[in-house]
Design brief:
Blueprint (H helix, E strand, L loop, with lengths): L1 H15 L4 E4 L6 E6 L5 E7 L8 E7 L4 E5 L9 E7 L2 E8 L7 E2 L5 E4 L5 E2 L4 E8 L17 E7 L18 E6 L2 H4 E2 L2 H5 L17
The structure holds protoporphyrin IX containing FE.
Length: 215
């Protein structure tokens, strides 16, 4: 009895400790260095092949059900730039957040912006996915990973319950039921197609993008 309990516990922690790996979204064709958690949470990053002077990335964040997923671009919760997203019907609601205290983080403002990439943003029977261009999101003030980082820890937080006002991007949320940090491999996030993918931000979805390399 005791042994089987240990065994099940061991499997559960193995599943929760997955490390980021390359993953290509079937709809957008974008390849990410991608972390998937057993709760359904996932977060993936794509970067340009040449990182010199770059402050942008493409990210995909998602989960299953109607709860929220959150990512800390700086690892921990406090004083870091957070991305918070959840589904609202067929749409995704997302915002930047920041907080000095352990409580529902306030909306953060700055020069950073996020713009949806429609072909990578959808809700289906298994999960919801929000893919976006994050412009001016790689900062040098320690609120995010730094332009020179190759293996930063990013934070994740997830709660299966929908926010109280799910149509409002500034809605408060209740505390995550699962949180942690995971090391991303930014070299593996680099891709020569980044410049093309970036042009899709804010444009209507085009079916051909499902096969972006076939011309
Ligand atoms: C009412 C809302 C929230 C409360 C009360 C809260 C509270 C806390 C607390 C107390 C911790 C320390 C670990 C623990 O004792 O559990 C923590 C860690 C963390 N939280 Fe939150 N949090 C909230 C919302 C959020 C949101 C919306 C995000 C992301 C968008 C977030 C991201 C994180 C991360 C990344 C960690 C660090 C995990 C680690 O270092 O291992 N939190 N939070």
């Amino acid at each position: 009895m005791k042994l089987s309990t240990l065994f099940v516990g061991g499997l559960a922690s193995l599943a929760a400790a997955q490390t980021p790996a390359p993953y290509t979204d079937a709809k957008s064709g974008i390849t990410f260095n991608y972390f998937a958690h057993s709760t359904g949470y996932f977060f993936g990053l794509a970067l340009p092949a040449n990182s010199t002077g770059n402050t942008d990335f493409i990210a995909t964040i998602g989960g299953k059900g109607t709860g929220w997923s959150g990512t800390s671009l700086g690892g921990g919760m406090l004083g870091k730039l957070l991305i918070l997203a959840w589904p609202n019907g067929q749409n995704i609601v997302s915002s930047f957040r920041k907080t000095a205290n352990y409580g529902s983080p306030a909306v953060a403002t700055g020069t950073f912006t996020q713009t949806s990439i429609p072909n990578g943003t959808y809700v289906n029977s298994t999960h919801w996915t929000y893919t976006f261009l994050c412009s001016k999101c790689i900062l040098t003030d320690k609120t995010t990973f730094a332009p020179t980082d190759t293996a930063p820890s990013l934070g994740y937080a997830v709660n299966a319950n929908a926010p109280s006002q799910k149509t409002n991007p500034a809605s408060s949320v209740s505390k995550h039921s699962t949180e942690g940090q995971v090391v991303f491999d930014l070299k593996k996030a680099q891709n020569a197609n980044f410049a093309t993918w970036k042009t899709w931000a804010g444009k209507p979805a085009v079916a051909k993008r499902e096969r972006p390399f076939l011309g």
